[in-house]
Write a structure and sequence with these properties.
With 513 residues, this protein is of the alpha/beta class. It has helices spanning 4-14, 19-22, 84-93, 138-148, 163-174, 180-187, 214-226, 248-258, 284-291, 293-311, 334-340, 349-364, 399-407, and strands at 33-47, 54-56, 78-79, 82-83, 97-100, 122-123, 131-132, 151-156, 198-201, 237-244, 266-274, 320-329, 369-375, 385-387, 395-397, 414-419, 424-430, 433-440, 447-454, 460-467, 486-488, 491-493, 496-501, 505-512. Strands 21-20-24-18-17-16-1-19-23-22 form a ten-stranded mixed sheet, with helices on one face. Strands 2-5-8-9-10-11-12-13 form an eight-stranded parallel barrel, surrounded by six helices. The protein is globular and about 70 Å long.
Length: 513
């Protein structure tokens, strides 16, 4: 997560292509029309990894404190200090992997501050200079992951830390028993190792993680990764800091400098879709501009994957491309930030559509991506849940939460090709079960789709829709279920599928063949 100065750079880059560039054949036309799509069930792209639906939690605003964590003595209903409603909702969502503790916070975080009975109070220098008590540390994070069924992904401190510090964190987490650090973990309540596999070797080291040039970061990556070992039988998956957006200069210089050294298992880029408007005040033109960014994201995925392949042409692809921060970033409302925390952002129907465009894109590029982590899981930016502060009992599932639920049936199926891409569509298949998701991002025009299939003939179908005609509508604390997924009509005739897509909607169809 980058602070405001980097965000301003992203805002300048966000202007440009219209949504018509994302959807080439006039999806934004005002009249209703029928779009014909062919789903090639016999043309596989790649497995839709559950990790493509990953999440991200940073010590930022009320994401952790007041969002996920309220403390064991809180009057808010909790499970060992975790907000009870948040745990249940996230468990239902099936979060596959959760990245923590940052973001920018990671490169100013020292893991020993968050263990043991006496924890120091530290200033959060990146996000408001507020003082936090470190009551949520590595044990609490691992506990959260176990409660919601997520695999942990730790972002290590390269910017202000040392190789010895990160090396010791790996040992503390993963060494089974018998060393001073593993025994300390046991004394702190966790005799069994955490077996953390995913480790970020720094975060945004081109920015808040040290303002490094790529060659310097490559040297840091080589030094830090040299001391990170596969203790306890857990094979580490080491993730290098990739580019800011599609910065090919960063990627090429890092890879050139790192040649011959330890190859990163993951290479993580960050890409946000920004706007100067507050979340509930969007116009059609503003939405068009923000959603157009997804075409640049897709282009970046294709180009960065090609760069990695050029440096590591092995077909097993030792370097896996990741997008471990992504999402819409709107202008904040001062009163909301004051009441609910930094970067607290209301999530509207527009946010759900944005999530749908992104998740469809990940399906289409399933052969190029390993993991994606939306920013962030609670209260901050493009979140799944919203709460009303550290003392508030409300916990609302956002429209983005329901968008992710709409894509859950794709997980572990094989993505297949769809054409032509006149609309945002993706499809996946596992034997005789087929899932198709379609997104209509137009603000005022409905559309109909007529889908044919090659490779199999569907005989039955059911559908769900997430929809609201007002792009600025949202689930509030007073009306938490205003926008939820509902059953939707779909027709199967002679192997063809016909389904209506109202303006501002996501439709997922499950078919049997």
């Amino acid at each position: 997560m980058r602070p405001s100065s980097s965000r301003r750079r992203f805002l300048r880059h966000a202007a440009g292509a219209s949504l018509a560039a994302l959807i080439p054949r006039g999806l934004l036309a005002a009249d209703s029309k029928t779009e014909r799509v062919t789903i090639h069930l016999d043309d596989a792209i790649g497995v839709v990894r559950p990790e493509l639906h990953g999440q991200f939690a940073e010590h930022l605003g009320s994401c952790v404190y007041g969002g996920l964590w309220v403390g064991k003595n809180s009057p808010i209903p909790n499970v060992d200090g975790y907000r009870k409603a948040a745990v249940q909702y996230l468990k239902d969502l099936g979060v596959p992997v959760l990245r923590w503790p940052g973001g920018c916070f990671a490169d100013d975080y020292h893991w020993r501050d968050g263990i043991g009975p006496k924890r120091p109070k530290r200033v959060n220098s990146h996000w408001g200079d507020y003082v936090e008590d470190n009551s949520f540390g590595i044990h609490e994070f691992i506990g959260l992951c176990k409660n919601i069924g997520a695999e942990p992904y730790l972002a290590g401190n390269v910017g202000s830390g040392t190789p010895a510090e990160l090396r010791d964190w790996v040992e503390y987490c993963n060494y089974p028993s018998g060393s001073t650090l593993s025994d300390e973990r046991a004394a702190n309540g966790s005799p069994e190792p955490f077996n953390v596999r995913y480790w970020g070797v720094g975060n945004e080291n081109w920015g808040c993680g040290g303002r490094m040039v790529p060659e310097h970061y490559a040297d840091e990556f080589r030094q830090f990764s040299n001391y990170m070992r596969n203790w306890g039988g857990t094979k580490l998956f080491l993730i290098a800091c990739g580019p800011n957006g599609n910065d090919v200069n960063w990627s090429r210089k890092f890879l050139t400098r790192n040649a011959g050294a330890r190859i990163p298992d993951g290479f993580a880029m960050h890409f946000y879709e920004n706007s100067r408007l507050t979340p509930t005040q969007f116009t059609a033109d503003a939405m068009d501009a923000q959603m157009s960014t997804f075409q640049r994201v897709e282009n970046a995925i294709i180009q960065e994957r090609a760069i990695l392949d050029g440096f590591e042409p092995n077909p097993t692809r030792a370097m896996n491309l990741m997008l471990d921060e992504w999402g819409v970033w709107d202008r904040m409302i001062p009163d909301e930030e004051k009441n609910y925390g930094r970067l607290w952002q209301q999530i509207t129907m527009r946010g759900a559509v944005a999530a749908g465009l992104g998740l469809n894109m990940f399906n289409r590029q399933a052969d190029k991506l390993y993991m994606c982590n939306i920013a962030q899981i609670v209260n901050v930016l493009h979140s799944m849940l919203l709460t009303d502060g550290p003392t508030g009992r409300n916990c609302v599932r956002t429209t983005t939460y329901y968008a992710f639920m709409m894509f859950k049936p794709h997980r572990l199926k094989t993505a297949v090709r769809a054409e032509p891409l006149d609309l945002s569509v993706s499809a996946s298949r596992d034997g005789g079960e087929i899932v198709v998701t379609l997104v209509n991002p137009r603000t005022s025009a409905d559309m109909q789709t007529d889908c044919s299939f090659t490779g199999a003939t569907p005989t039955s179908a059911s559908a769900q829709i997430l929809h609201h005609a007002d792009m600025n509508a949202y689930n509030s604390f007073d009306d938490p279920d205003k926008i939820t997924a509902k059953p939707h009509s779909v027709a199967i005739e002679k192997g063809r599928m016909r389904v209506d897509l109202p303006a501002m909607s996501i439709v997922t169809v499950t078919l049997k063949a």
